[in-house]
């Protein structure tokens, strides 16, 4: 359900799938969604606009919100491998916020699991 002047899911899909859409329009929609706290939707618009600066800024938001999914998505789009201390900060923040799954996922990035020995 669209609210506060946002697009319906079908309108959003159609806009993002259009081949001819201006970067300014995409950035405007990205900012609107971001202001409404719909960060993942904003990323959709920023990605289509190739708005690297906005997505790099949202990496900080991901850490502040303890959102490992968002950080992983942004780092993949940007081709960045976040430093272990970024993942550690995210894990600590996720733990503070009670987001234990995100905390666990972030810690796996800091301390990768050792491969299991092959069963003989």
Offer a concise description of the structure.
This protein has 120 residues and is an all-alpha fold. It contains seven helices and no strands. It folds into two domains: 8-50; 51-112, no CATH class.
Task: Give the helix/strand layout.
Elements: H1 9-17, H2 23-35, H3 39-49, H4 52-65, H5 68-78, H6 84-96, H7 100-110
Structure description:
This is Tetratricopeptide repeat-containing protein. It comes from Desulfacinum hydrothermale DSM 13146. This protein is mainly alpha-helical. It has 2 domains: 43 residues; 62 residues, no CATH class. Helix content is 68%, strand content 0%. It has 7 helices and no strands. Helix 4 crosses helix 6. The termini are far apart. The model has no long low-confidence stretch (mean pLDDT 91).
The coarse silhouette is: elongated
The first-to-last residue Cα distance is: 54 Å
Number of helices: 7
Pattern of helices and strands: HHHHHHH
The poorly predicted ranges are: none
Helix content: 55-70%
Roughly how many Å is the radius of gyration? 17 Å
Kindly state the mean pLDDT as a whole number? 91
- Secondary structural class: mainly alpha
